[in-house]
Amino acid sequence: MTDLLQGLNAAQREAVTATEGFVRVIAGAGSGKTRALTHRFAYLVNELGILPGNILCVTFTNKAAAEMRQRIHQLTGDNDTGIINTFHGFCVTVLQEDSHAVQYPKSFLVLDNADIDAMLQLIYEERGLTLRNMTFSAARDMIEIRKLFKDPKYYEDMITLPLDTLREKYERATATTDIIFYGYLYQEKKCFGLDYNDLIKFSLYIFREHADIRRKWQQRLEYIMIDEFQDIDQLQYELMEVLCGYHKNLFIVGDPDQTIYTWRGANVKYLLDFDKAFPGTKTILMMQNYRSTPEILAAANALIGKNQNRIKKDMIPTLPGGAPVVCHFAGTQEAEAAWMAGEMQRLHEEGIAYRDMTVLYRAHYVTRAVEEVLLREKIPYTIYSGVPFFGRMEIKDALSYLRMIVYQDDLSFRRVANVPKRNLGKRRMAFLQEYAEQHGCTLYRALQDNVEEPLFKGTRARQFLSLIQSFAQDSAGRPVSEVLSALLNASGYEAMLRTEGSQERLDNLAELKQSVYLYETTCGEECTLEHYLSHVALLTNGDTAEQGDKVKLMTVHAAKGLEFPCVFLCGMNEGIFPSRKVRTLPGMEEERRLAFVALTRAERRLYLSEADGRNFDGSPRYPSRFVLDIGRDRLRFTAPPPEGLIREAEDYIAATQRFFPARDSDTVFPVGQRVRHLLFGEGTVLEVDRDNGAHLVQFDDMPTPRKISFRAKLERC
User: How far, rounded to the nearest angstrom, does the alpha carbon of residue 280 sit from its chain's CA centroid?
Assistant: First the structure.
């Protein structure tokens, strides 16, 4: 016990040793909450004798989960690190064990955006739709909104309706949105695929309809810990309520000052009102900051202190004093970018690696001038939120080959059956599609049944079938990394890339193999091929940062949960950060929380910059109110700020804020919210137009949507 508690401060020790009942930890940025979580896990195992498999620890990214597993392994020395996962990853675990309750096989597919787009492509071709009807991105958003809000019980169709009935529902649909929605449900069920929304919905359905399964999981999970609780949404909250219903041991960690995902459904009231929902809750404050210098914390505390709707608290510095927070007012965006580049070169000459420098911004368009200057000055950089690693062509191809071994699903078949070229072009694929529909089978089975037909002579169809069959028979028990290497070689895929001279793609495949190997070392015996494929489908770009000595460029949202030695926060102008789309006081408080998150990413050095000039609409640019919130005494300006400019900025901010509605909840509804209008009746919010202060609402009894002003009396349904 002494070893586990050694080095922890009083609040961390209290959190680690408070094992029973409901515990809420309010943890400031950089306060060592991951350390507290991992030591608490080890304390439960080593001191209380709890089996690791009876502990659930929920994080919000796969990267955080992997880091936590490694730390716990080091503390306990046990390869069993319990269930440490995201909510979605945990639901995959539930469904892999109990999918029989919804008539799904254990080897169901977890769908990512590329899979969804492939399904949409089939629907569009089959029903004659084009991107003019709806882009794939808009279609994905529409499907998600309908699943969450308009048709929240859609999953009952997927679970209870026969496939033929679901197809009939799709074929009868006439409206574009209905065609896409029901076509997508049909395609999902056809290949036993589940997307992110389905994972939680299906798990909740099983727990609701099957008391024996619910009680099994409740009894198994003796202790539940949830990180980043300020980001939890309604479905995740419902899942948490179910899981802790037996042992009633629930430990949550969060920071209300870092609530920045309300637009995605996160609701900070679950954290703030936790003690009301669970009487007897013990609340612990962890405020000592181990990440940032006192100068950075002073700026961050001053900024967030301007918010009214918060728990009053300040982060307490533990590090010695460092460099001042620097603020630069530039004449133009190009001059702002040039100043940043000059500072980067100076830091690099001092021995600081480029990889330790990060540029943060509110919106992607801010990077244009920055990228141009970095290219000109030959400063290497990478955009953190660019094409996701697991969305790249060669990575999707490699994973599709692995999926063919396990699932032989149509999505993977279409992707790799003719890659490398096997003379399985459009005519032969159309034949297989027709045969599969007539016989109710997969495309792979259709090829098996017809490989001797004259149509397939002169193709390499037989070799493809032999490849998949041999690996399907021999892959059990082999390491996934070994199977992947052998499959890429035997399929001729890597040889194809070498012939094309695609060295970058070959390098990416090498990185994939390395990531699989690293996953195997942390996952242990559980790392079957099926387990890995489910895991990788849940990965996001934030889980797979690019390596190399490069400056990182990313949005503040993408930086959540990360930390960097040197941070450049650019575009600190009114209308950029805070965004010009913010039209309410609560919305402005969320923007300020987002700025707070940006400041607290910095460990040693923090630079703020803004550019004068004019906006797109010709209006003058003013310094951000967030710079003014911090105060002059906490900043070191590269040149004294012009008094006239500061006064104009203050007048502009006061004028714009005067017209803000006092309450966000009564005026601005999230996309997907069901609302009621005095005359138009009930409808669904499709879009929030903050520029014009209006909701775009599709009313149930109207053929086309209407824009309704924030000032109008809309009510929640």
Answer: 33
Give the C-alpha separation, 667 to 711, whole Å. Answer: 7
Mean pLDDT per 10-residue section of the chain, whose length is 717 residues: 80 94 94 91 91 91 82 80 87 93 90 89 93 88 88 91 93 94 95 92 96 96 94 93 95 93 83 93 94 97 92 92 95 92 96 96 84 90 69 88 93 93 92 92 94 92 94 87 92 89 81 79 72 77 63 91 94 90 83 96 96 73 93 93 84 77 62 89 86 82 87 78
Q: Which of 24, 33, 214, 415 is catalytic?
A: 33
| Cβ neighbourhood burial of 560 (10 Å; 0-12, 13-18, 19+) | buried
Max Cα separation, the chain? Answer: 84
Q: In what order do the strands lie in the sheet with 250-254?
A: 83-85, 55-58, 223-226, 250-254, 22-27, 282-286
Helix (H, G, I), strand (E, B) or coil at 478: coil
With CA atoms as reference, report the closest residue to 234 among 670, 596, 668: 670
Out of 201, 601, 604, 621, the active site residue is 601
Contacts 24+ apart (CB under 8 A), 477-481: 479/520, 479/527, 480/402, 480/516, 480/519, 480/520, 480/527, 480/528, 480/529, 480/532, 481/513, 481/516, 481/517, 481/520
Alpha-carbon gap, residue 359 to 352, rounded angstroms: 15
Catalytic status, residue 33:
yes
Q: Of 188, 227, 494, 591, which one is the catalytic site residue? A: 227
**Whose CA is closest to 367, among 617, 625, 556, 127?**
556
Catalytic residue among 17, 19, 34, 528: 34
Is residue 258 part of the annotated active site? The answer reads: yes
Give the Cα separation of 694 and 668 in Å (integer). Answer: 8
The catalytic position among 258, 259, 442, 459 is 258
Active site residue 86: no
Alpha-carbon dihedral angle through residues 404, 405, 406, 412, given to the nearest 10 degrees: -10
438 is catalytic: no
Catalytic, out of 228, 231, 591, 603: 228
How much is the pLDDT for 665? Answer: 46
Q: Is 228 annotated in the active site? A: yes
Is 350 part of the annotated catalytic residue set? no
Using DSSP's 3-state secondary structure scheme, residue 41 falls into helix
Give the ranges where 210-327 is alpha helix by DSSP (H). 211-220, 234-243, 269-272, 274-277, 294-304
Q: How many CB atoms lie within 10 A of CB 70?
A: 14
pLDDT tens per residue across span 97-141: 999 999 999 889 999 888 899 999 999 999 999 988 988 888 998
Give the HSE-up count for residue 605: Cα atoms under 13 Å, Cβ half-sphere.
16
